[in-house]
Write a structure and sequence with these properties.
Layout: H1 6-16, H2 20-25, E1 33-37, H3 44-50, E2 55-58, E3 61-67, H4 78-81, E4 85-87, H5 94-99, E5 106-109, H6 116-124, E6 130-134, H7 138-150, E7 156-159, H8 163-169, E8 174-180, H9 201-221, E9 222-232, H10 241-250, E10 254-257, E11 266-267, E12 283-285, E13 295-302, H11 321-334, E14 344-347, E15 350-353, E16 366-368, E17 371-377, E18 380-383, H12 385-388, E19 399-402, H13 407-413, E20 418-419, E21 425-431, E22 434-442, E23 445-448
Parallel strand pairs: 5-6, 5-8, 6-7, 8-9, 19-21
Antiparallel strand pairs: 1-3, 1-4, 2-3, 7-16, 9-13, 10-13, 11-12, 12-13, 14-15, 15-17, 17-18, 20-23, 21-22, 22-23
Helix pairs in contact: 8-9, 9-10
């Protein structure tokens, strides 16, 4: 059992009363483990037929499944490298289900790293519309990009900004916003005992201050009629019902709605913050009532307010005719379809495909302005791993497909060069026809272009 702070134990004993013994007993149990099928790449039924894992459905997420870590290690399976699923705490799948993003919408994930909820949103959007994923911490935004790449997300823009700066740029712009707020992490104590050492009653109040600032910024970016989902992974009412209560008192144009999948959870606790009964429309996920860690979810709908003016498509760094020609030449030689039509932008020598009519990002810290296609070098175009992960064998002229048991597959994942006959040029390397990365055939060999930072030991 984690070494739990005494003040935390007293807090939970006071709040839970007769439920406290059952709650405390969960700290002697192993945390539940879950994975979520990436429906951008594979349907749930096909996934279940393909994988060797012992899986049980997660009731509140149709793409989610419990797995047995003692029997299976899905993080070590090649299908994980192919982006067919994301390993995610079962409770952490709840906020995006409550957000209910739709294809074609404008959606913001305001506190996005490491990317579990962002990739879940992308799959629910079916790759259609505009998804902006923001992460204020530059180091964490790198991990976010890696996960978006692995799961083949092509319509996302990744920013590295404060919520306050974004709120001045995107007034009334988004249809849906997820605020998975930084918090004291009480709900993760069982899963990550190190969090216990950073906890204190004072820290919960500091977190609540930050949460209020983030929620305030998010509210300005939501259009009237839009939905905002607020979530934390803490039990503390100061950071949960207390933050929502203060927000609603300040923003009468917002209404708290029932959490769509609330039959699986427990109600929010207005009595813990001396608030109105409507706070019970929020939801609490408790480890002594379900298989998962602690979470809080609240759904807010904006009923009134100014409609944001539709921003004009922004101007971005231009793409030279030479760069476009190199992309077209690569596409003619490699793709089995027409080349991307744009709009494009070039950051240095890195070429990006923008996700449709994107507002100006000038003055913002941009980690990625769209789908990264590759590098325009002197005399040639070098395709990116990101682009490879969005493709399928039927969209390219040449593909090398290994089976999951193939020794050559594991040699490829280790970065080795392999014997390979065939026409000279770029090929998409796949496992069971799911993309893993690029290779290049030359002189009877397959030169390995699997990224060095992803290679297996």
């Amino acid at each position: 059992m984690a070494q739990l702070p005494n003040e935390y134990l007293e807090q939970m004993k006071t709040l839970l009363k007769e439920e406290y013994p059952a709650f405390l007993a969960t700290y002697g149990e192993p945390p539940s483990k879950g994975l979520r099928v990436n429906t951008l790449k594979i349907g749930v039924e096909e996934f279940l037929q393909r994988v060797p894992f012992r899986l049980e459905p997660i009731p509140w997420c149709k793409e989610g499944f419990f797995f047995e870590p003692e029997e299976d290690r899905p993080g070590k399976h090649v299908y994980h490298a192919a982006g067919l699923y994301y390993i995610q705490d079962p409770s952490a799948m709840a906020p995006v289900v409550a957000l209910d993003p739709q294809p074609g919408e404008r959606v913001l994930d305001l506190c996005a790293a490491p990317g579990g909820k962002t990739t879940q949103i992308a799959a629910r959007m079916k790759g259609e519309g505009l998804l902006i994923a923001n992460e204020i911490d530059p180091r964490r935004s790198k991990v976010l990009v890696e996960n978006l790449d692995r799961l083949g997300v092509s319509h996302a823009v990744v920013l590295n900004e404060s919520p306050q700066r974004l709120s001045r740029r995107f007034v009334g712009f988004f249809d849906r916003i997820l605020v998975d707020a930084p918090c004291s992490g009480e709900g993760m104590f069982r899963k990550d005992p190190d969090v216990c050492g950073r906890w204190s009653p004072r820290a919960t109040h500091r977190c609540a201050d930050v949460q209020r600032e983030i929620l305030e910024a998010a509210s300005a970016m939501l259009r009237p009629g839009g939905r905002l989902t607020y979530s934390t992974c803490t039990f503390n009412p100061v950071e949960n019902e207390g933050v929502i209560l203060g927000f609603l008192e300040k923003h009468p144009e917002f209404e708290l709605k029932p959490v769509p999948q609330s039959e699986h959870y427990r109600e929010g606790r207005p009595d813990w913050v001396d608030g109105p009964s409507q706070l019970a429309r929020s939801a609490r996920l408790w480890p002594h009532h379900l298989q998962g860690e602690g979470h809080f979810v609240a759904v807010l709908e904006k009923t009134d307010g100014p409609v944001g003016t539709a921003p004009r498509p922004g101007s971005f760094p231009p793409v030279s005719a030479d760069a476009k020609n190199k992309l077209k030449q690569f596409s003619r030689e490699t793709l089995a379809e027409d080349p991307p039509e744009g709009p494009f932008t070039l950051y240095g020598d890195h070429l990006y495909l923008l996700p449709g009519p994107l507002p100006s990002l000038k003055g913002l810290k941009v980690e990625r302005p769209g789908c990264y296609l590759g590098q325009v070098k002197k005399g040639r175009f070098v395709p990116s791993h990101s682009w490879a992960m969005t493709l399928t064998p039927d969209r390219v002229q040449r593909a090398v497909s290994f089976t999951e048991e193939s020794p050559e597959l594991h040699r490829y994942l280790r970065g080795e060069t392999l014997p390979q006959s065939g026409e000279k040029g770029w090929v998409l390397v796949t496992v069971d026809r799911f993309p893993l990365g690029w290779g290049k055939i030359s002189g009877g060999m397959l030169k390995n272009h699997f990224p060095k930072w992803l290679r297996w030991d």
